[in-house]
Structure formats: structure tokens, C-alpha cells
């Protein structure tokens, strides 16, 4: 081949790689982290759990510092919330600026905060506060703009499906008349002007429970055999959730806002309930959430917006024993408090939307050695004693008052000490054992100002090559590139 031709082919390959990584964005899955419970693991442990599972998005319902800080130094994107009761504190610019400057901006240096949800389902849950939502959104956005953070952090607010007057057929859906022009319209204008998106909490479970005579359970659970056709558009819906999301799209279009995207900020299925909630069971929860994962990660969008990646957050990481209401309300959890799922859940590619994976975190190929969170305290104490004693690990940062002392737990302190020992041994895997209480990870365990040292090239990376972050390039893009390449080669 001529040199020029070779260069051309190389450029072509490069172009295809870049095009693929730019164009392709599959839908992504996040998890809601409800904490209305008295038995949950520490936020730090939860952050480790999500990283271990390859979950890169989380939504919390307040702006609790210690919870947010637990995600520092991870690749997990965090949606934080200004709770409904606090909207009145954000009605003028000064306090919103202050909140952004004193709270959001410092945390943003180490935590990937991506969205601030200003209130949750306000017009339905607290109709009297509806007028507080937009001013608070505007003031927070203004504060972010002044702090140069408005590109990185979007402001939105989550609505329930109850804000729609009708939702079927999706194509005839509209917003509640009494809220449409006064409440929804100005918010949609704001979302458009600020490059944000619409958040909807959509629950086929609730729809089914209130209309079980007209909604088939299989349809609510995404059974492909159960198809519902919108008579106006002839679009086929395999799954009620997709019809709900399209209902929101159509309602927004009716308001002149066809350009906005919808994020499913909550969905899921309870795994247990009262006697009259028999469909709240493990099998249905597993079916719903696995189908949801598959559909969202498959990048098929909704029938009305095919190819428009749909991001969805599964409610919830854990059961919440303090949540009021029927028994189902306390059983939305996917993970038990030891970090195991209650049922099989296929989280493979859960991080696909971002193109990064736990193995490729930060792209450096570094590895760290940390304590296994399921090891007993007693055995961690033994390992800790060895590492900090004979092992000569650097245990200064885990002393009281030092950056890695908090969280004050065996698992955290052992992690730091184990990693120090492991790094000093030159990433020798044999040095990450400690009686089986240690594990090698490619996820940087650093948080806040607690930095876990690492070498630039790790052992795991070099043995299994998992350090690169190539994502799967879907056939259509790959096919297009192969075609171009073949075409190019045929010209040589
Ligand atoms: C923040 O969350 C942590 C962990 O759930 C909890 O212990 C603490 O009380 C919370 N702080 C506030 C101010 O709510
Ligand atoms: C925001 O960016 C502008 C222009 O780059 C700069 O002058 C200003 O100091 C920045 N403000 C803050 C709070 O970082
Ligand atoms: C519309 O919203 C108003 C105010 O929140 C509420 O009173 C009314 O019941 C809603 N209408 C429908 C049809 O949901
Ligand atoms: C839907 O399908 C029916 C039957 O095939 C057809 O008559 C009708 O024109 C179609 N409507 C649209 C909007 O495509
Ligand atoms: C993804 O979508 C395509 C097209 O609808 C379908 O053929 C394929 O089976 C889906 N894959 C998965 C894993 O669901
Ligand atoms: C990746 O991790 C290494 C090792 O901890 C660190 O030095 C580097 O700054 C990190 N890079 C990014 C982009 O976070
Ligand atoms: C282990 O120690 C931590 C504090 O480091 C404590 O919170 C936890 O309850 C202990 N676990 C057991 C099983 O004793
Ligand atoms: C789609 C998506 O969320 N992409 C993000 C993945 O993570 C990188 C940083 O690692 C962000 O820049 C992308 O926006």
C-alpha cells in the first residue's frame, strides 16, 4: 500500500472510533438511594457496593453532606435534591447563591454532582407549595451560573404521572388543565432555556394496582407478548412504562416542547406487600427490573422516540423500613443490607451508558487493595494489626483527626492499611491477602481528602487487559465504518 493510503486508512479508523464514541450513547441505569430506614449500611459502604456492581448513577432525596461525600473520587454521578419542605428557603437569589457557593461548589470538586432536583412531585404532594418550585429552580440555576457550574449541573424537578390529565393513548396525553399553563408551561420553558430535561417518576406497579381491570399484569411487566397499540399513531407498546414515558413526550409536545428529553427518575417494582398486594412479589420484581435493564441498556428508546436513549433510575437500592404506608412501600429494595440482591438481577453493562466500567475506572489501570466489606471485624483487626505493625504500612492517615480516620470502621481502616502495604510491595497480588480479608480492585477507593496511593500500572491491568475503557460499538456504527473502510480499500 502507498504511504498516503495507509495514512488515509489510519485516519479513517480513527474517525470511526471517534464517531462511534461520540454518537453512541445507550440509555443508562441508575439507582435511587432512599434512606428512610434505620438499618442501612454506611454511605461509604453503599458507594463501594455501587462501584462493585458497576452502577454509575445514583439519586438521593436530600443534600446530606456525608452521603454525597461518600461518592467522592468515584465515577458515580449523583443527583441531589432540595426537599419540598426547603423550597421556601430558595425564593430569593442570595440564599441560593450561598448554598451553591458554600455547599455545592466545594463538593463538586470531588463528587460528580450532575443534577439538582428542586422538589419532588410538588404539585401533587404539596399543592400549596407549587408556586415555590420555579423560583427556587431559577435561583439555584442562577447561583450555579455565577459559580460557573451551570453547564455541569442541571436543574430540574421530578413529577409523578399524576400530573397528566390522561395518559392513554399516549398520543392524546395532556397535562392536568389546572396546572398546564400556570405550573408546567413555565417549568418546561425553564428546562429548555437551561438545557435541562424533564424528570418523571413512573410506576407501572401503581398504575396496575389502581386499574387492574384494564391493565394486564404482563403488560406492566414488559412481557413482549402483551402489546398495546396506540390507535392514533399505530405505535406498539411492549410495556406500560414505555407508554407512560411517551405520554409525557406527547403532553410536552402539546405544550410546544418537543425538544425536551425525559428521564425516568424513579421506577421499579416492590418485592413484597400486604395480602391485597399479591403482585408485589419477588418474581414480578425480578421480571420488571431485569426487563427494564435490558430495554434501557439496549438503546431502543421508546416507540415514539426510538433511538432517544432513555435513562432510568431503579427505586430503590434498599428496603426502607421507616417508609409509611402499605407493606409494599417498605419493600422496594433490590439489595439487602449486606449488599446481596434479593433476586437475580443482570447488571452486566449497567454502566454502558457511560462507556466506563469498574475495571476501567479512571483509565489509569491502577489497582488498589482494600478490605473485603464482608470480612468479620475480628479478622480485619488481625490484618490491620499486621499491616500497621510488622507490615510497616503507612497507618498515619487513619489515626484520629487524620483524613482517612472517618468513617471510623474496621473495613475503612483496614482498607487503607492493606493498600499501603500492597503498594509498597509493588502491587504484588500475593501482598493483598491478609487471611482472605483483602481484595484487589481497579476502583479508586479514595474519597474526600483521603487519598489511597496507587501506582500507574497495576498487575490486574497487565494480566487481563481490562484497564482500557473500550465500549461495545453497536453493529450499525461498526457496519457503517466497515463499509467505509471496505470502500476506501477498494479504491487503493
Ligand atoms: C446524613 O446521613 C447520615 C447517613 O445516613 C446520617 O447518619 C446523618 O444523620 C444525616 N445527616 C443529616 C443532617 O440528616
Ligand atoms: C467564572 O468564569 C469567569 C470567566 O472564565 C471568571 O472570570 C470567573 O472568575 C469565574 N467565576 C468563578 C466563581 O469561578
Ligand atoms: C389537577 O390538579 C389539581 C390541582 O393539583 C387537582 O385538584 C385536580 O384533581 C387535578 N385533576 C386531575 C384530573 O387530576
Ligand atoms: C394505522 O393502521 C391502520 C390499519 O392498518 C391504517 O388504516 C391507519 O391508516 C394507520 N394509521 C396511521 C396513523 O398510520
Ligand atoms: C435489542 O433490541 C433489538 C431490536 O429491537 C432486539 O432485536 C434485541 O433482541 C434486543 N436485545 C436485547 C438484549 O434485548
Ligand atoms: C487516577 O488515579 C490516579 C491514581 O490514584 C491519580 O493519580 C489520578 O489523578 C487519577 N486521574 C483522574 C483523572 O482522576
Ligand atoms: C464491625 O465494626 C463496625 C465499626 O467498625 C460496626 O459498625 C459493625 O457493627 C461491626 N460488625 C459486627 C458484625 O460486629
Ligand atoms: C453518557 C455519560 O454519562 N457520559 C459521561 C461518562 O463519564 C465521563 C467522564 O468520565 C463524562 O464526561 C461523560 O459525560
From TrEMBL:
<keyword id="KW-0326">Glycosidase</keyword>
<dbReference type="InterPro" id="IPR017853">
    <property type="entry name" value="GH"/>
</dbReference>
<feature type="signal peptide">
    <location>
        <begin position="1"/>
        <end position="26"/>
    </location>
</feature>
<dbReference type="GO" id="GO:0005886">
    <property type="term" value="C:plasma membrane"/>
</dbReference>
<dbReference type="InterPro" id="IPR044965">
    <property type="entry name" value="Glyco_hydro_17_plant"/>
</dbReference>
<dbReference type="Pfam" id="PF00332">
    <property type="entry name" value="Glyco_hydro_17"/>
</dbReference>
<protein>
    <recommendedName>
        <fullName>glucan endo-1,3-beta-D-glucosidase</fullName>
        <ecNumber>3.2.1.39</ecNumber>
    </recommendedName>
</protein>
<dbReference type="Pfam" id="PF07983">
    <property type="entry name" value="X8"/>
</dbReference>
<keyword id="KW-0325">Glycoprotein</keyword>
<keyword id="KW-1003">Cell membrane</keyword>
<dbReference type="GO" id="GO:0042973">
    <property type="term" value="F:glucan endo-1,3-beta-D-glucosidase activity"/>
</dbReference>
<feature type="domain" description="X8">
    <location>
        <begin position="367"/>
        <end position="452"/>
    </location>
</feature>
<comment type="similarity">
    <text>Belongs to the glycosyl hydrolase 17 family.</text>
</comment>
<keyword id="KW-1015">Disulfide bond</keyword>
<dbReference type="GO" id="GO:0005975">
    <property type="term" value="P:carbohydrate metabolic process"/>
</dbReference>
<keyword id="KW-0336">GPI-anchor</keyword>
<dbReference type="InterPro" id="IPR000490">
    <property type="entry name" value="Glyco_hydro_17"/>
</dbReference>
<keyword id="KW-0472">Membrane</keyword>
<dbReference type="GO" id="GO:0009506">
    <property type="term" value="C:plasmodesma"/>
</dbReference>
<dbReference type="InterPro" id="IPR012946">
    <property type="entry name" value="X8"/>
</dbReference>
<keyword id="KW-0449">Lipoprotein</keyword>
<dbReference type="GO" id="GO:0006952">
    <property type="term" value="P:defense response"/>
</dbReference>
<keyword id="KW-0611">Plant defense</keyword>
<dbReference type="GO" id="GO:0098552">
    <property type="term" value="C:side of membrane"/>
</dbReference>
<keyword id="KW-0732">Signal</keyword>
<keyword id="KW-0378">Hydrolase</keyword>
Amino acid at each position: 500500500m502507498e504511504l498516503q493510503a495507509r495514512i488515509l486508512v489510519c485516519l479513517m479508523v480513527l474517525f470511526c472510533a471517534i464517531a462511534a464514541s461520540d454518537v453512541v450513547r445507550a440509555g443508562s441505569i441508575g439507582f435511587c438511594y432512599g434512606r428512610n430506614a434505620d438499618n442501612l449500611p454506611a454511605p461509604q459502604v453503599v458507594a463501594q457496593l455501587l462501584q462493585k456492581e458497576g452502577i454509575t448513577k445514583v439519586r438521593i432525596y436530600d443534600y446530606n453532606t456525608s452521603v454525597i461525600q461518600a461518592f467522592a473520587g468515584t465515577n458515580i454521578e449523583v443527583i441531589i435534591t432540595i426537599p419540598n419542605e426547603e423550597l421556601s428557603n430558595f425564593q430569593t437569589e442570595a440564599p441560593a447563591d450561598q448554598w451553591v457557593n458554600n455547599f455545592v461548589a466545594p463538593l463538586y470538586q470531588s463528587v460528580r454532582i450532575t443534577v439538582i432536583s428542586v422538589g419532588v412531585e410538588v404539585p401533587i404532594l404539596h399543592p400549596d407549595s407549587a408556586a415555590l418550585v420555579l423560583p427556587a429552580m431559577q435561583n439555584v440555576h442562577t447561583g450555579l451560573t455565577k459559580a460557573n457550574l451551570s453547564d455541569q449541573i442541571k436543574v430540574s424537578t421530578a413529577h409523578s404521572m399524576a400530573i397528566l390529565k390522561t395518559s392513554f393513548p399516549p398520543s392524546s396525553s395532556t397535562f392536568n388543565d389546572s396546572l398546564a399553563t400556570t405550573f408546567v408551561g413555565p417549568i418546561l420553558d425553564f428546562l429548555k432555556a437551561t438545557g435541562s430535561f424533564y424528570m418523571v417518576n413512573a410506576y407501572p406497579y401503581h398504575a396496575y394496582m389502581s386499574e387492574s381491570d384494564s391493565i394486564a399484569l404482563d403488560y406492566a411487566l414488559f412481557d413482549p407478548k402483551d402489546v398495546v397499540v396506540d390507535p392514533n399513531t399505530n405505535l406498539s407498546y411492549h410495556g406500560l412504562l414505555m407508554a407512560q414515558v411517551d405520554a409525557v413526550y406527547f403532553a410536552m409536545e402539546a405544550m410546544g416542547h418537543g425538544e425536551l428529553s425525559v428521564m425516568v427518575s424513579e421506577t421499579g417494582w416492590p418485592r413484597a406487600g400486604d395480602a391485597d398486594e399479591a403482585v408485589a412479589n419477588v418474581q414480578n420484581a425480578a421480571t420488571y427490573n431485569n426487563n427494564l435493564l435490558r430495554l434501557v441498556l439496549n438503546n431502543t428508546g421508546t416507540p415514539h422516540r426510538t433511538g432517544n436513549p432513555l435513562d432510568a433510575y431503579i427505586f430503590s437500592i434498599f428496603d426502607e423500613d421507616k417508609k409509611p404506608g402499605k407493606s409494599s412501600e417498605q419493600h422496594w429494595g433490590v439489595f439487602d443490607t449486606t449488599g446481596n440482591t434479593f433476586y437475580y438481577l443482570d447488571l452486566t453493562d449497567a454502566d454502558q451508558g457511560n462507556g466506563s466500567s469498574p475495571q476501567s475506572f479512571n483509565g489509569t489501570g491502577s489497582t488498589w487493595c482494600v478490605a473485603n466489606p464482608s470480612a468479620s471485624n475480628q479478622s480485619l483487626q488481625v490484618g490491620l494489626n499486621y499491616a500497621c505493625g510488622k507490615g510497616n504500612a503507612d497507618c498515619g492517615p487513619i489515626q484520629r483527626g487524620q483524613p482517612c480516620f472517618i468513617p471510623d470502621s474496621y473495613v475503612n481502616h483496614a482498607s487503607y492499611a492493606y493498600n499501603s502495604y500492597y503498594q509498597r510491595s509493588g502491587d504484588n497480588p500475593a501482598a493483598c491477602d491478609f487471611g482472605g480479608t483483602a481484595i484487589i480492585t481497579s476502583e479508586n477507593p479514595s474519597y474526600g481528602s483521603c487519598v489511597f496511593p496507587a501506582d500507574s500500572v497495576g498487575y490486574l491491568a497487565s494480566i487481563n487487559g481490562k484497564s482500557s475503557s473500550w465500549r461495545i460499538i453497536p453493529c450499525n456504527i461498526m457496519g457503517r465504518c466497515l463499509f467505509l473502510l471496505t470502500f476506501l480499500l477498494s479504491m487503493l
